[in-house]
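Title: Prediction job returns without error message
Component: structure pipeline
Severity: low
Priority: P3
Assignee: unassigned

Description:
Job completed but the reporter wants confirmation the result is attached to the right record. Sequence as submitted:
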Amino acid sequence: MTRAELIAFLRRYKLAVQASVAADGSPQAAVVGIAVSDQLEIIFDTLESTRKYENLRADPRIALVIGWDDAVTVQLQGTVDFPEGAELERIRECYFVPYPDGRERLAWPGITHARVRPSWLRYSDFTREPPYLYEWNAADQPEDDEEEDGPVTPRAPSVTVS
């Protein structure tokens, strides 16, 4: 699987389920509208008054599930930040591609945009026989693996499950 193929798969979807942890350790999940950058960043908007925002400000670890229909999915873990300045403008422009109405939400008090940088993901395709599983770990990627259409180095060889 190449980086371009992975990004293309993720861009087929506009929704994800995100999971975070509250200060008391309890889990919290929410459906969020997503965009995917050429750098394999997941972007979503939220309000500063939401539980997810408070959770992620206190603990930036996040998990996402993208593409749960059609028996093909990506499970993703990473860290989230809330960029400012030029980086905020860059990720907003990415977000506005699938969500042009997001520009109107900029007038909402407390609106902000989150950027998720994956550290691990698993692509699962259960439409194949046997099913195809592909695992990726950011720590295993070469420093210069930034090309959109270059190969994504798997953590382990492709795994099939029978």
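Comment from assignee: result matches the submitted record. The chain is about 20% helix and 40% strand.
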